[in-house]
Structure formats: structure tokens, C-alpha cells
Amino acid sequence: MKSIYLVSLLLLLNLAHSGQTQTFASADPDRIALYPLQNDYRNTLSLSGMWQFRKDSLEVGAKEGWQNGLKESRSIAVPGSWNEQFTDMRDYLGMVWYEKQSYVPSSWKGQRIFIRIGSANYAAKVWINGQPVGMHEGGHLPFAFEVSPYINWGAANRISIQIENHLKPSRVPTGNVQGGPFSNFPKSNYDFFPYAGLHRDVWLYSLPAVASIKDITVKPGFTGTTGSLEVAVATEGKATRGTITVTGNGKKYEAPIRIAGNAATATVSIPDVRLWSPEDPYLYQVEVTVGDNKTTLDRYTLETGVRTISTTSTQVLLNGKPVFLKGFGKHEDFPIFGRGAANPVIVKDFSLMKWAGANSFRTSHYPYDEEFMRMADREGFLVIDEIPAVGLYFHGDTTELAQRQVMVKQYINELIKRDKNHPSVVMWCVANEPFPREVSVTGGPGGREATPKSIELFQEMFSLVKQKDPTRLAVLVGVMGGPSEWVGMSDIICINRYYGWYTHAGDMNGAVKLLSMEMDGLHKKFNKPVMVSEFGADTYPGMHSDEPEMFTEEFQTNFIKAYLDVAATKDYVAGMHVWAFSDFKTGQGIIRFGGVNYKGVFTRDRKPKAAAFYLRSRWNKK
User: Fold this and answer.
1) Rounded CA separation 17/335 (Å)
2) Which of 52, 257, 295, 592 is most buried, with most CB under 10 Å away?
């Protein structure tokens, strides 16, 4: 354990080093538990929009005082990836600076003021009015800092954010790996573009100074027709009492709470409960108020659903009944926006997934924007929520290995802290396609043998997930030819398979025989449900042939049909996720024509290929 703490310290020192002596606080994961909310006790101010931007390729900005005002800057949109917005920065992953000036409303005076950054990829430092506030490593998840001491009242406030996205073997996801499985530029150790920038909304928000709600954790359950929500509340300040109110189906249910040590718990029963499911994604409103014996001091409201998730040896059970996960792996990726959050794209993606008949997706290969998760709750989608642990490996430099393990645990903590109240989230995924030293893709149920060290580290990840949230399933998604011992730790066996594409190319008869044999072997060995979490074929839109041929729309349709047909013959298969929902940007490489992965059943701008129509006809059958 001492070595982990030492590595954490080294990470912080590495982030702090940029030719300066300023001290930066590390982000507290507890600060991201509750999304900023406007109500009668809390305030929000969006900082998204146009910011000023400057490249810092020599990394001299902090030493030269850029936090005191950017010169020679240009405009950039937030959210958004800088790689898509500027013609001269597509492949640039070095240091940059963002700056925004904003007044803080005078009505907020006397409250605690915070800044919350939805995602800064990959490492960020924040200044307010030239004063160092905090730093955070890791993209795709939010971080927040209190900035009350730094605010200028009655004047504009300068927010300065320094970001860099250097690709390193010590980071998660990994990059610039010697001897890695990918040969591409930029040198990411994964098959999607390493977009950089402020990818999600930036907020200023305020909390009551006397007392406030810091965290709410809701655990649902039911017995017969009576539902229950166990609500744990964490507070700050001098609150001594409160009330939990659950509203739904035209009725209200209340439970008082007594706060001791800034914590309280109560269970609210819901007669004639309406269970959350893809067929009926019903959400209950949970309101928590806290205060003292005289008055209410803070209030927070969220939506959640009552549902359970479990498994047998052959099935995934939602609310005690079998459910089959049909859907996609996908990416947050769209022209011009890059990985930047775009609400119209979110709406479009859910519309197309419903059109195709899907009921689930995986957040491959990182957590998605919070609005995406709220949409999943409302639209009734089952989500496998994944941390950015793609491209992991367990050989080589032991210091780098320890650094990656620290980051993986940080991601698990942050992801569960952020998404634990979403009924749509039914599984946490701790890694996608970790690689052994050597990979054999020729098939068979065995694969390469797992090293004892890799087993130990994955056990740590799974134990942490179960400690943080024992109510959901935990999985690891295995690479083709990887050790079966890794995927065997999961609550369900999740495998990515491309027989007929990367191996047995074009030979679908041989491919499905191999797939069937391997699935049978995995189920026999572990006696758990099996899910093919990725399968697909690159397909150039509009390319056709009279006989199915690789890269044509006919081949993609036949490929997907063959895999689905195999799965339909096996009662232990609990889900099939097509890779991918839509085409997406990658680095440049010999196997990625135009720097795009064309395995989408929709194009990058969301036009359907023939396979999308096939899935619609198959998945929408009653």
C-alpha cells in the first residue's frame, strides 16, 4: 500500500512541475457527486461558450504569467476538441491555455462558490484571478474546486485553465507504448482519436454557507409490489435534521432524518411501486432538505428508478426477470465537435438507437457526458459504464504499472461517485481489451495465460468496485486471444470478437464455428452468462457487391447476422453489442482509411448503412 501512496505523490509532483513554485490542491472526488443545480438555495452559472485560447508548445506559460492574462490568443468553443476546431492543431496534444472572464452575481455573496469542469483531457490546472486553485489528472470525468477566497466582487473574474494531453505509457489510457499492438499517428495505444480540450460544460455554482448537502446515495430495491429507496445523505456545516421526500405516481412518501457526524440514512417505502425498465423507464423524484430546528438550509432534487440487477448461470435478470442486452458499443465522436458534448447529437443518437430496436449500450471506452446518462435513464437504456482503462498491459516498467493502477482506482472512485444514482447503469466495466505480452488471435477458449501480477491488480479493481457499489454487476471486456482468467473474474463473461475480420478474413463459416466453440468453452469453464460486447466489420458507406465481400454493406450485414444467429442458439448468451453504433475518427494508420474506423452501422454523421436497416427489422420483431 505504501508504494501506491508513493506513486500518487510522484504523479502529483509530475503534474505540478512546469517551471513554477505555485501550489495546487488535488481534486476531491466527493465534490462531483451532485451535478450543479439551480433552486431556491443553490445557484448555477454556465461558463460554456467562447473562450480565449493559446498554444503553449514550449510549456513556458505558467513561468511567463499567462494565468494573469492571455496575449496573442484566439477564440475557441467550449465544449469542444481543439483538434477539430483549428486547421493547424489536428495532431497537437501538447500544452494549451484557456481563459474566460465572468462576473459572479452579487446575490451569491456570502455563499460558497465553486468551479466545476466536466472534462479536461488529459491533465489540467486551474487559476482564478491569477491564483492557483487546483489540478486534476484524467479525462472524461468532472472535477471541482471551491474558489470563494479568489472571487472579485463587483468586477470581472479571470478563469485560466492549463491543459495538456501528452501520450504516455504511465497514463490511462496509455500512449507511446513501445511494441504496442497499434501502429498509428498520433501514437495512442488504442483505436480512437486522442481528442484534447475542455470537452464538457464548465460551471460556476454556489452552495449555502451555513450547511449544504454534499452527497446523496440512493439504493433501490423491492419486495413483491412494495419498492424501497435507501437514501444516504452526506452534509457539510451545521445541519442537524432533514427530510427525504419521494414523489411518483401522483403520491408522496416522506421520511425524517437526524444528521450526526454530517451523515444520515433513511429508507422510504413505496407501495404499488412502478419498476424502472426499458419498457417502462419510470423515474421517481427524490428530494432531500436539510436544516436546523428553525429553518431549511439546503435542498437537492434528483431522479432515479426502482430496479434490481442480478445474474444466474445463464441469464442477466432485471427486476428478477431475464433481459437480453441488444445494442451497441459507441463513441462520443462527431465532426467539428470531436469529443465535445453536443446535446443535439445526444438526442439524435438515442433516437437512432431506439429506431434500430436497441435497449443498451456500453460507454466505450470512457465515461460519457452526464446529459447522456440522464437521457439513458429517461429513455430506458441499460448501460455498461466504463472507465478509460483501454490499452492496459502488465509487463515492462513496474513504476509505470503502479502509476496506471493508481489512475484506474481514481477513475473507479470518480465514476461511481458520479453515476451511482442512475437506474440505467447496470454494470461497471473496469477495463476494455487489456493486453498480455503476446496475443494469439487464432481462437479457442484458452488464450494466453494471465500473469499472477495482472490477476492481483484486476482483483484489486473488482474489489474496489464491489466495495463502492455492491448493487450492480462488475465486468471486464476481454480482447480476442487474451487470457480467459481475466474475463472469468466478471459477473458476466464479456468478450470482443472479430473472427471473420481480423482473422479468418471473409470466411464467415469458419468464423462462426470458432466463435461458437469459444463461447461454449467459456461458459463451461466459468458457468456464467456470456456476452459478445463487440463484433463487427469495417464497411465503406455505399460500397456494394453482388456477393458479400469485405468492406461492402452486404458483408457487414451478413457478418452481424451470422454472429446474432450463433448467439440465438445458446441459452447462456445474455447480450450482443454490435461494434459500432457509428463510424468514428481514429489516428492515421494503414488499416484506417482516412483516419476513420468504418465499423459503424451508421456513418459518422449518422446516416444508416444497410446493416442498420437489418438490425431494425430483427430487433423490433415482437
Assistant:
1) 34
2) 257
pLDDT in tens, 227-252: 999 999 999 999 999 999 999 999 99
Cell 433516437: give the residue. Answer: 351
Asked if residues 283 and 289 have their Cβ atoms less than 8 Å apart, the reply is no
0.85 surpassed by pTM: yes
Query: Looking at the DSSP assignment, which residues form a beta bridge with residue 230?
Result: 219, 267
Do 469 and 586 belong to one domain? yes
Distance CA 197, CA 79 (A): 8
Q: Is 8 exposed, middle or buried (0-12, 13-18, 19+ CB in 10 A)?
A: middle
d(C-alpha 386, C-alpha 534), whole Å: 14
Q: What is the mean pLDDT of residues 452-460?
A: 96
Which residues, at least 6 apart from 97, have a Cβ–Cβ distance to it below 8 Å?
Answer: 53, 54, 56, 61, 66, 70, 73, 160, 161, 162, 163
Return the C-alpha cell found at 340.
465535445
Domain boundary among 145, 173, 207: 207
* Cα dist from 63 to 59, 243, 291, whole Å: 8, 50, 46
Write the pLDDT tens digit of every residue in 328-361: 999 999 999 999 999 999 999 999 999 999 999 9
From residue 184, give the alpha-carbon distance in Å to each of 92, 480, 590.
14, 20, 8
Any idea what the CATH number is for the domain that residue 515 is in?
A: 3.20.20.80
Rounded to whole angstroms, the Cα distance separating 159 from 95 reads 17
Judge if 488 and 355 occupy the same domain: yes
What are the phi and psi torsion angles at 463 (to 5°)? -65, -40
Q: At 283, which helix (H) or strand (E)?
A: none
Which of 609, 578, 594 is closest to 501 using CA atoms?
A: 578
On the question of a cis peptide bond just before residue 186, with omega within 30 degrees of 0, the verdict is yes
Distance CA 192, CA 262 (A): 43
Task: List Cα–Cα distances, 279 to 274, 352, 361, 363, in angstroms.
Answer: 12, 17, 16, 21
Cα–Cα dist 465/232, whole Å: 18
**Looking up cell 492496459, which residue turns up?**
392
Question: Do strands 131-137 and 25-26 pair parallel, antiparallel, or not at all (unpaired)?
Answer: parallel
Residue type, 553: E
- Give the torsion sign (CA, 384, 388, 390, 394): negative
Looking at the structure, tell me whether residues 179 and 56 fall in a common domain.
yes
- What are the tens digits of pLDDT across the range 365-408? 999 999 999 999 999 999 999 999 998 999 999 999 999 999 99
Strands (E), 281-424: 284-291, 296-304, 309-311, 316-318, 321-323, 325-329, 360-362, 382-386
* Angle (deg, nearest 10), helices 610-619 and 553-568: 30
Catalytic residue numbers?
433, 534
